[in-house]
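Marked as duplicate of an earlier ticket. Keeping the data here for the record.
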Amino acid sequence: MRTFEYRLYPNREQSSLLMQCLIESRMLSNQMLEMVKTQYAEQQTFPSKYDLESAFKGQSEHVPATTVQMLADRLSKSLKRFLAAKKLGIADVGFPRFKKPNRWHSLQLRQYGKDCYLHEDKKHLIVPKTVGHFLKIKLHRPIEGTPKTVHLVHRADGHWYALIVCETEPLTSHLPSGCNHPDIGIDVGLKSFLTDSEGNTVENPRYYRTSQRTLRRKQRTICRRKKGGQRRRKAAKSTAQTHLKIDRQRRDHHFKVAKQYAESDHHIAVEDLQITNMVQNHSLSKSILDAGWGQFLAILSHKAASAGHQMIRVNPRFTSQKCSQCGEFVQKSLSVRTHICPFCGYVADRDVNAANNILKRARPGHGHQEQTYTDGCRVS
Protein backbone atom coordinates (compact mmCIF):
# COMPACT_ATOMS: atom_id res chain seq x y z
CA MET A 1 0.00 0.00 0.00
CA ARG A 2 1.19 3.51 -0.86
CA THR A 3 -0.38 6.86 -0.10
CA PHE A 4 -0.26 9.74 -2.58
CA GLU A 5 -1.02 13.25 -1.32
CA TYR A 6 -2.39 15.98 -3.58
CA ARG A 7 -3.60 19.52 -3.04
CA LEU A 8 -7.31 20.21 -3.57
CA TYR A 9 -8.74 23.50 -4.83
CA PRO A 10 -12.45 23.53 -3.88
CA ASN A 11 -14.59 26.58 -4.63
CA ARG A 12 -16.46 28.48 -1.92
CA GLU A 13 -19.55 26.25 -2.07
CA GLN A 14 -17.52 23.04 -2.04
CA SER A 15 -15.43 24.29 0.90
CA SER A 16 -18.63 24.95 2.83
CA LEU A 17 -19.91 21.44 2.08
CA LEU A 18 -16.61 19.87 3.14
CA MET A 19 -16.55 21.77 6.44
CA GLN A 20 -20.18 20.87 7.15
CA CYS A 21 -19.43 17.21 6.47
CA LEU A 22 -16.38 17.39 8.71
CA ILE A 23 -18.44 18.82 11.59
CA GLU A 24 -21.31 16.36 11.22
CA SER A 25 -19.02 13.34 10.83
CA ARG A 26 -17.38 14.17 14.16
CA MET A 27 -20.80 14.38 15.77
CA LEU A 28 -21.76 11.01 14.26
CA SER A 29 -18.56 9.45 15.56
CA ASN A 30 -19.27 10.71 19.07
CA GLN A 31 -22.87 9.44 18.87
CA MET A 32 -21.60 6.02 17.82
CA LEU A 33 -19.27 5.97 20.80
CA GLU A 34 -22.15 6.98 23.08
CA MET A 35 -24.20 4.07 21.71
CA VAL A 36 -21.28 1.70 22.37
CA LYS A 37 -20.95 2.86 25.97
CA THR A 38 -24.70 2.67 26.59
CA GLN A 39 -25.02 -0.87 25.23
CA TYR A 40 -22.00 -2.03 27.20
CA ALA A 41 -23.42 -0.55 30.42
CA GLU A 42 -26.79 -2.26 29.87
CA GLN A 43 -25.88 -5.56 28.19
CA GLN A 44 -22.11 -5.94 28.73
CA THR A 45 -21.65 -6.32 24.95
CA PHE A 46 -20.40 -4.11 22.14
CA PRO A 47 -22.37 -3.45 18.92
CA SER A 48 -20.76 -4.65 15.70
CA LYS A 49 -19.81 -2.26 12.92
CA TYR A 50 -22.86 -3.43 10.96
CA ASP A 51 -25.12 -2.50 13.86
CA LEU A 52 -23.52 0.94 13.97
CA GLU A 53 -23.92 1.39 10.20
CA SER A 54 -27.61 0.49 10.23
CA ALA A 55 -28.28 2.65 13.28
CA PHE A 56 -26.71 5.83 11.83
CA LYS A 57 -27.26 5.36 8.10
CA GLY A 58 -28.98 8.38 6.58
CA GLN A 59 -29.09 10.36 9.83
CA SER A 60 -26.89 13.16 8.51
CA GLU A 61 -27.68 15.16 5.41
CA HIS A 62 -24.09 16.10 4.56
CA VAL A 63 -22.27 12.86 5.50
CA PRO A 64 -22.16 10.29 2.65
CA ALA A 65 -22.90 6.63 3.29
CA THR A 66 -19.29 5.62 2.61
CA THR A 67 -18.07 7.90 5.39
CA VAL A 68 -20.62 6.41 7.82
CA GLN A 69 -19.28 2.96 6.96
CA MET A 70 -15.70 4.06 7.60
CA LEU A 71 -16.65 5.70 10.91
CA ALA A 72 -18.25 2.45 12.09
CA ASP A 73 -15.27 0.43 10.90
CA ARG A 74 -12.84 2.83 12.58
CA LEU A 75 -14.62 2.63 15.93
CA SER A 76 -14.92 -1.15 15.70
CA LYS A 77 -11.17 -1.51 15.12
CA SER A 78 -10.44 0.82 18.04
CA LEU A 79 -12.53 -1.37 20.32
CA LYS A 80 -10.75 -4.51 19.12
CA ARG A 81 -7.35 -2.95 19.78
CA PHE A 82 -8.47 -1.88 23.26
CA LEU A 83 -9.79 -5.35 24.15
CA ALA A 84 -6.65 -7.05 22.78
CA ALA A 85 -4.39 -4.71 24.77
CA LYS A 86 -6.48 -5.20 27.90
CA LYS A 87 -6.20 -8.97 27.52
CA LEU A 88 -2.42 -8.69 27.26
CA GLY A 89 -2.26 -6.33 30.24
CA ILE A 90 -1.02 -3.31 28.28
CA ALA A 91 -2.02 -0.19 30.20
CA ASP A 92 -1.02 2.41 27.58
CA VAL A 93 -3.95 1.62 25.24
CA GLY A 94 -7.09 3.38 26.49
CA PHE A 95 -10.77 3.18 25.63
CA PRO A 96 -11.86 5.23 22.57
CA ARG A 97 -12.54 8.86 23.50
CA PHE A 98 -14.96 11.51 22.30
CA LYS A 99 -13.36 13.78 19.72
CA LYS A 100 -13.16 17.54 20.08
CA PRO A 101 -13.15 19.80 16.98
CA ASN A 102 -9.40 20.36 17.20
CA ARG A 103 -8.80 16.59 17.04
CA TRP A 104 -10.91 15.88 13.96
CA HIS A 105 -9.51 16.98 10.60
CA SER A 106 -10.24 14.30 7.99
CA LEU A 107 -13.00 12.52 6.07
CA GLN A 108 -12.53 8.98 4.82
CA LEU A 109 -14.26 7.57 1.73
CA ARG A 110 -14.39 4.07 0.34
CA GLN A 111 -13.74 3.31 -3.30
CA TYR A 112 -16.85 3.35 -5.43
CA GLY A 113 -17.71 3.41 -9.12
CA LYS A 114 -16.11 1.44 -11.93
CA ASP A 115 -12.51 2.60 -11.89
CA CYS A 116 -11.26 5.07 -9.32
CA TYR A 117 -11.84 8.49 -7.81
CA LEU A 118 -10.21 10.49 -10.60
CA HIS A 119 -12.17 12.00 -13.45
CA GLU A 120 -11.01 11.18 -16.97
CA ASP A 121 -9.64 14.71 -17.40
CA LYS A 122 -7.16 14.04 -14.53
CA LYS A 123 -8.00 17.42 -13.06
CA HIS A 124 -10.94 16.59 -10.79
CA LEU A 125 -11.55 14.21 -7.93
CA ILE A 126 -14.93 12.46 -7.97
CA VAL A 127 -16.54 12.39 -4.52
CA PRO A 128 -20.17 12.11 -3.34
CA LYS A 129 -22.36 15.10 -4.16
CA THR A 130 -22.83 15.88 -0.48
CA VAL A 131 -19.15 16.92 -0.28
CA GLY A 132 -18.76 18.70 -3.61
CA HIS A 133 -18.95 15.98 -6.30
CA PHE A 134 -16.11 17.35 -8.55
CA LEU A 135 -13.17 18.75 -6.60
CA LYS A 136 -10.32 20.35 -8.51
CA ILE A 137 -7.07 18.50 -7.81
CA LYS A 138 -3.43 19.14 -8.74
CA LEU A 139 -1.75 15.87 -9.80
CA HIS A 140 1.88 16.85 -9.43
CA ARG A 141 2.84 13.18 -9.82
CA PRO A 142 1.04 10.19 -11.41
CA ILE A 143 -0.91 7.75 -9.26
CA GLU A 144 0.48 4.22 -9.14
CA GLY A 145 -1.59 1.14 -8.42
CA THR A 146 -5.30 0.75 -7.69
CA PRO A 147 -6.96 3.37 -5.43
CA LYS A 148 -8.73 1.81 -2.46
CA THR A 149 -9.63 4.65 -0.11
CA VAL A 150 -9.23 8.40 -0.01
CA HIS A 151 -8.88 10.76 2.96
CA LEU A 152 -9.93 14.39 2.57
CA VAL A 153 -7.77 16.25 5.10
CA HIS A 154 -8.08 19.85 6.25
CA ARG A 155 -4.67 20.97 7.49
CA ALA A 156 -3.60 23.89 9.65
CA ASP A 157 -2.60 25.95 6.62
CA GLY A 158 -6.30 26.18 5.72
CA HIS A 159 -6.03 24.02 2.58
CA TRP A 160 -7.70 20.71 1.74
CA TYR A 161 -5.63 17.72 0.65
CA ALA A 162 -6.55 14.33 -0.83
CA LEU A 163 -4.62 11.32 0.50
CA ILE A 164 -5.27 8.49 -1.95
CA VAL A 165 -4.32 5.05 -0.63
CA CYS A 166 -3.39 2.71 -3.50
CA GLU A 167 -2.61 -0.98 -3.67
CA THR A 168 0.68 -1.33 -5.54
CA GLU A 169 2.91 -4.16 -6.67
CA PRO A 170 6.35 -4.57 -5.05
CA LEU A 171 8.90 -2.51 -6.99
CA THR A 172 12.59 -3.26 -7.35
CA SER A 173 15.07 -1.42 -9.51
CA HIS A 174 17.24 -4.55 -9.89
CA LEU A 175 17.55 -8.11 -8.66
CA PRO A 176 19.39 -8.65 -5.34
CA SER A 177 21.68 -11.26 -6.90
CA GLY A 178 23.00 -8.72 -9.39
CA CYS A 179 23.52 -5.89 -6.92
CA ASN A 180 27.05 -4.51 -6.67
CA HIS A 181 26.31 -1.85 -4.07
CA PRO A 182 28.24 -2.04 -0.76
CA ASP A 183 26.87 -2.64 2.72
CA ILE A 184 26.78 0.10 5.34
CA GLY A 185 25.99 0.60 9.01
CA ILE A 186 24.15 3.67 10.30
CA ASP A 187 24.15 5.03 13.84
CA VAL A 188 21.53 7.72 14.52
CA GLY A 189 22.27 10.30 17.17
CA LEU A 190 21.60 13.77 18.54
CA LYS A 191 24.89 15.60 18.01
CA SER A 192 24.75 14.59 14.34
CA PHE A 193 21.59 13.16 12.82
CA LEU A 194 23.42 10.03 11.69
CA THR A 195 26.91 8.68 11.20
CA ASP A 196 27.69 5.79 8.87
CA SER A 197 30.42 3.16 8.99
CA GLU A 198 32.40 4.99 6.29
CA GLY A 199 32.82 8.06 8.50
CA ASN A 200 30.24 10.26 6.78
CA THR A 201 27.91 12.33 8.94
CA VAL A 202 24.60 14.12 8.36
CA GLU A 203 24.02 17.29 10.37
CA ASN A 204 21.08 17.32 12.76
CA PRO A 205 18.85 20.22 11.55
CA ARG A 206 16.91 20.53 14.86
CA TYR A 207 13.85 22.11 13.24
CA TYR A 208 11.82 22.25 16.46
CA ARG A 209 14.67 23.74 18.47
CA THR A 210 15.26 26.49 15.92
CA SER A 211 11.53 27.37 15.90
CA GLN A 212 11.09 27.40 19.67
CA ARG A 213 11.44 31.16 19.94
CA THR A 214 8.65 31.67 17.40
CA LEU A 215 6.45 29.09 19.09
CA ARG A 216 7.05 30.62 22.51
CA ARG A 217 5.92 34.02 21.28
CA LYS A 218 2.82 32.63 19.56
CA GLN A 219 1.81 30.49 22.52
CA ARG A 220 2.08 33.47 24.85
CA THR A 221 -0.21 35.35 22.48
CA ILE A 222 -2.78 32.54 22.83
CA CYS A 223 -2.66 32.80 26.62
CA ARG A 224 -3.39 36.52 26.48
CA ARG A 225 -6.52 36.04 24.37
CA LYS A 226 -9.96 35.49 25.84
CA LYS A 227 -11.18 31.89 25.77
CA GLY A 228 -13.79 31.30 23.10
CA GLY A 229 -12.93 34.51 21.26
CA GLN A 230 -12.17 34.93 17.60
CA ARG A 231 -8.72 36.40 18.28
CA ARG A 232 -7.77 33.35 20.36
CA ARG A 233 -8.80 31.02 17.54
CA LYS A 234 -6.77 33.09 15.10
CA ALA A 235 -3.69 32.91 17.33
CA ALA A 236 -4.14 29.14 17.77
CA LYS A 237 -4.34 28.70 14.00
CA SER A 238 -1.09 30.63 13.56
CA THR A 239 0.62 28.37 16.12
CA ALA A 240 -0.69 25.26 14.35
CA GLN A 241 0.72 26.52 11.06
CA THR A 242 4.17 26.78 12.64
CA HIS A 243 3.95 23.19 13.90
CA LEU A 244 2.86 22.07 10.43
CA LYS A 245 5.86 23.80 8.87
CA ILE A 246 8.22 22.06 11.31
CA ASP A 247 6.68 18.68 10.51
CA ARG A 248 7.04 19.27 6.76
CA GLN A 249 10.67 20.38 7.10
CA ARG A 250 11.55 17.31 9.15
CA ARG A 251 9.77 14.94 6.77
CA ASP A 252 11.46 16.48 3.73
CA HIS A 253 14.85 16.06 5.39
CA HIS A 254 14.12 12.41 6.20
CA PHE A 255 13.12 11.61 2.63
CA LYS A 256 16.23 13.22 1.15
CA VAL A 257 18.63 11.42 3.48
CA ALA A 258 16.82 8.08 3.17
CA LYS A 259 16.84 8.21 -0.63
CA GLN A 260 20.59 8.80 -0.65
CA TYR A 261 21.36 5.66 1.40
CA ALA A 262 18.59 3.47 -0.04
CA GLU A 263 19.85 3.88 -3.60
CA SER A 264 23.60 3.61 -2.93
CA ASP A 265 23.81 0.70 -0.43
CA HIS A 266 22.66 -2.91 -0.64
CA HIS A 267 22.37 -3.89 3.04
CA ILE A 268 21.67 -1.02 5.45
CA ALA A 269 22.21 -1.94 9.09
CA VAL A 270 20.49 0.16 11.76
CA GLU A 271 19.76 -0.18 15.46
CA ASP A 272 16.44 -1.64 16.57
CA LEU A 273 15.69 1.28 18.90
CA GLN A 274 12.89 1.27 21.47
CA ILE A 275 12.11 4.96 21.05
CA THR A 276 9.05 4.83 23.30
CA ASN A 277 11.27 3.80 26.20
CA MET A 278 14.04 6.24 25.29
CA VAL A 279 11.79 9.31 25.49
CA GLN A 280 11.08 8.50 29.14
CA ASN A 281 14.39 10.28 29.79
CA HIS A 282 13.01 13.81 30.09
CA SER A 283 16.40 15.44 29.63
CA LEU A 284 16.68 13.95 26.12
CA SER A 285 13.07 13.39 25.08
CA LYS A 286 12.63 16.72 23.27
CA SER A 287 15.80 16.23 21.23
CA ILE A 288 14.92 12.62 20.39
CA LEU A 289 11.44 13.53 19.19
CA ASP A 290 12.82 16.50 17.27
CA ALA A 291 15.20 14.19 15.38
CA GLY A 292 12.31 11.87 14.43
CA TRP A 293 14.27 8.62 14.32
CA GLY A 294 11.17 6.43 14.07
CA GLN A 295 9.81 8.25 11.03
CA PHE A 296 13.22 8.25 9.35
CA LEU A 297 13.75 4.50 9.81
CA ALA A 298 10.26 3.76 8.46
CA ILE A 299 10.96 5.88 5.36
CA LEU A 300 14.40 4.30 4.93
CA SER A 301 12.89 0.80 5.08
CA HIS A 302 10.34 1.63 2.39
CA LYS A 303 12.89 3.36 0.14
CA ALA A 304 15.34 0.46 0.46
CA ALA A 305 12.68 -2.09 -0.45
CA SER A 306 11.64 -0.05 -3.50
CA ALA A 307 15.26 0.04 -4.68
CA GLY A 308 15.69 -3.71 -4.30
CA HIS A 309 17.85 -3.31 -1.22
CA GLN A 310 17.45 -4.37 2.40
CA MET A 311 17.37 -2.69 5.81
CA ILE A 312 18.41 -4.83 8.78
CA ARG A 313 17.67 -3.95 12.40
CA VAL A 314 20.16 -5.18 14.99
CA ASN A 315 20.33 -5.24 18.76
CA PRO A 316 21.67 -1.82 19.92
CA ARG A 317 23.15 -3.17 23.15
CA PHE A 318 26.75 -2.03 23.73
CA THR A 319 27.27 -0.80 20.16
CA SER A 320 28.95 2.35 21.52
CA GLN A 321 30.96 0.61 24.25
CA LYS A 322 32.39 -2.26 22.24
CA CYS A 323 35.54 -1.78 20.16
CA SER A 324 34.81 -2.53 16.51
CA GLN A 325 38.40 -3.71 15.91
CA CYS A 326 39.21 -6.09 18.76
CA GLY A 327 35.77 -6.60 20.33
CA GLU A 328 36.77 -5.50 23.86
CA PHE A 329 34.43 -3.36 25.97
CA VAL A 330 35.56 0.21 26.59
CA GLN A 331 33.15 1.98 28.94
CA LYS A 332 32.58 5.68 28.37
CA SER A 333 29.89 8.23 29.18
CA LEU A 334 27.85 10.17 26.65
CA SER A 335 30.13 13.18 27.05
CA VAL A 336 33.11 11.21 25.69
CA ARG A 337 32.88 11.58 21.91
CA THR A 338 36.09 9.73 20.94
CA HIS A 339 36.59 5.98 21.18
CA ILE A 340 40.11 5.11 22.38
CA CYS A 341 40.72 1.39 22.86
CA PRO A 342 43.43 0.65 25.46
CA PHE A 343 43.71 -2.96 24.22
CA CYS A 344 44.41 -2.52 20.50
CA GLY A 345 45.00 1.23 20.28
CA TYR A 346 42.15 1.87 17.84
CA VAL A 347 41.05 5.53 17.87
CA ALA A 348 37.89 6.72 16.11
CA ASP A 349 34.87 8.90 16.57
CA ARG A 350 32.40 7.35 18.99
CA ASP A 351 29.60 7.24 16.41
CA VAL A 352 31.81 5.79 13.65
CA ASN A 353 32.85 2.98 15.99
CA ALA A 354 29.18 2.32 16.81
CA ALA A 355 28.25 2.28 13.10
CA ASN A 356 30.95 -0.33 12.43
CA ASN A 357 29.63 -2.50 15.26
CA ILE A 358 26.11 -2.18 13.86
CA LEU A 359 27.32 -3.29 10.43
CA LYS A 360 29.10 -6.34 11.91
CA ARG A 361 25.95 -7.39 13.78
CA ALA A 362 23.96 -7.33 10.54
CA ARG A 363 25.53 -10.60 9.42
CA PRO A 364 23.11 -13.55 8.95
CA GLY A 365 21.86 -14.79 12.29
CA HIS A 366 22.67 -11.57 14.18
CA GLY A 367 19.99 -9.09 13.06
CA HIS A 368 16.30 -8.99 12.25
CA GLN A 369 15.91 -8.70 8.49
CA GLU A 370 12.89 -6.65 7.45
CA GLN A 371 12.85 -7.90 3.85
CA THR A 372 13.84 -11.31 2.50
CA TYR A 373 14.48 -12.55 -1.01
CA THR A 374 13.32 -15.77 -2.61
CA ASP A 375 14.36 -16.96 -6.11
CA GLY A 376 15.66 -13.51 -6.99
CA CYS A 377 12.41 -11.74 -6.01
CA ARG A 378 11.66 -9.66 -2.96
CA VAL A 379 9.01 -10.96 -0.59
CA SER A 380 7.44 -8.55 1.88
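See parent ticket for discussion. Residues 230-264 form the longest helix (35 residues).
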